[in-house]
Write a structure and sequence with these properties.
It holds the Pfam family DUF1905. InterPro entries: AF2212/PG0164-like_sf, DUF1905. By secondary structure, the protein is of the alpha+beta class. Helix content is about 20%, strand content about 45%. It has two helices and six strands. A six-stranded antiparallel barrel has the order 1-2-5-4-3-6.
């Protein structure tokens, strides 16, 4: 099981729906690509378990060509529980869920 910890800015997608994301650091994205290659899933997404503050959840990260990294969606209930808003730096502990 591969685990990563990092700080990144929470940002709001400007399109329809108003999703909030964290962009993973590129060095971590490279490691994830290497580890995930044999088991690539649809859209090359990766199942992960995430913890920020006292809140833990499961989701998927998605590749993003513009940043050459992965995007981590941060759900509204997580943002509320941790009092997070766009523009804040978020501490993230991310674990790849490997089958």
């Amino acid at each position: 099981m591969a685990a990563f910890e990092f700080d990144a800015e929470l940002w709001l997608y400007p399109g329809k729906g108003g999703w909030h994301f964290v962009t993973l650091p590129r060095d971590i994205a490279r490691q994830i690509r290497f580890l995930a290659e044999p088991k690539a899933r649809g859209w090359r997404s990766e199942a992960v378990t995430v913890k920020s503050g006292g809140t833990e959840w499961t989701t998927s990260i998605f590749p993003d060509r513009a940043s050459d990294s992965f995007l981590l969606p941060v759900k509204a209930n997580v943002r509320r529980a941790e009092r997070l808003t766009a523009g804040q730096t978020v501490r993230v502990k991310l674990t790849l869920d490997r089958d």
